[in-house]
Automatic annotation (TrEMBL):
Organism: Gopherus agassizii (Agassiz's desert tortoise)
Pfam families documented for this protein: His_Phos_1
Biological process according to GO: positive regulation of mitochondrial fission; programmed cell death
Catalytic activity annotation: O-phospho-L-threonyl-[protein] + H2O = L-threonyl-[protein] + phosphate; O-phospho-L-seryl-[protein] + H2O = L-seryl-[protein] + phosphate
Protein name: Serine/threonine-protein phosphatase PGAM5, mitochondrial
Region (Disordered), start-end ranges: 1-28
InterPro entries: His_Pase_superF_clade-1, His_PPase_superfam, Mito_Ser/Thr_phosphatase
Enzyme class, UniProt record, top EC level: hydrolase
SUPFAM superfamilies reported for this sequence: Phosphoglycerate mutase-like
Subcellular location: Mitochondrion outer membrane
CDD domains: HP_PGM_like (cd07067)
Length: 282
């Protein structure tokens, strides 16, 4: 939940096979055995091979009124209007999980970074600075552990604007499949947190605006549940699978959103820049 989250993912190794299935063939359960998804999770009728090109509602053809076409210029005007709506730049999204913090804190302000957590944030900041990229902004969760992580990282990125938001606060995004026994939030928590975390995804994860001329590099410092849900949504994987992934403290996840709306995951939870004795997952 908001206070505590699982130390590690669970349930991602099991496969469902029938006795006669060929080795390596994963058989999915019939749809009836899967729980109903919340209303904001849109499911195409097609199947696993489907890609919704208008996933962020910024597909140029969906933005223009095709009926309002000038009869004299016809397709030329349509092409011109399409071009006006097309993204030109690529967005690079760096999702950073906060560093290790005091999990015994009773309220959020007591859940400050540990000494090791501060060292992790320094290492993450140095890593980001070493990439030599022109970062545009650091948007961070308003929770204490994310704010403190941001303050340390930002020392290595002077001049990069910091923005705090409640949308990226930790929570329970959607009931995980398969379920886990060690973490069972109340249904109302999924109802409240899920809508907020989905709103964060819609607000921040999309192709570049048509007015954006140059590629952008943006940092988001937040939480494991939020990052894992965002990755599933961005790649159009079933969002219920978010808990099958695990993220270390201070890790870097890099998403790329092309002008076409195609999305690629460059890295997931990278902490290869940290010495092994500095890596934690609390």
């Amino acid at each position: 939940g908001v206070g505590k989250q699982p130390a590690h993912g669970a349930g991602g190794d099991a496969e469902t096979r029938s006795a006669g299935a060929a080795p390596g063939l994963l058989l999915l359960p019939p749809p009836a055995s899967c729980p109903a998804a919340p209303g904001w999770v849109e499911r195409p009728a097609g199947g696993g091979g489907y890609w919704d090109s208008n996933w962020d509602r910024r597909e140029p053809l969906a933005l223009i009124n095709r009926k309002k076409k000038n009869e004299e210029t016809g397709e030329e005007e349509l092409a011109s209007r399409l071009d006006h709506c097309k993204a030109k730049a690529t967005r690079h999204i760096f999702l950073i999980r906060h560093s290790q913090y005091n999990v015994d804190g009773r309220i959020d302000k007591d859940r400050i970074l540990t000494q090791l957590g501060r060292e992790q944030a320094e290492l993450t900041g140095r890593r980001l600075a070493s990439l030599g990229l022109k970062f545009d902004t650091i948007i961070h969760s308003s929770m204490t552990r994310a704010t403190e992580t941001t303050d340390i990282i930002s020392k290595h990125l002077p001049g990069v604007k910091k923005i705090s938001t409640d949308l990226l606060r930790e929570g329970a995004p959607i009931e995980p499949v398969p379920p886990v026994s060690h973490w069972k939030p109340e249904a109302v928590q999924y109802y409240e947190d899920g809508a907020r975390i989905e709103a964060a995804f819609r607000n921040y994860i999309h192709r570049a605006d048509a007015k954006q001329e140059e590629d952008s590099y943006e940092i988001f410092v937040c939480h494991a549940n939020v990052i894992r849900y965002i990755v599933c949504r961005a790649l159009q994987f079933p969002p219920e699978g978010w808990l099958r992934m695990s993220l270390n403290n201070g890790s870097i996840t890099h998403l790329v959103i092309r002008p076409s709306g195609r999305v690629a995951l460059r890295t997931l939870g990278d902490t290869g820049f940290m010495p092994p004795d500095k890596i934690t997952r609390t």
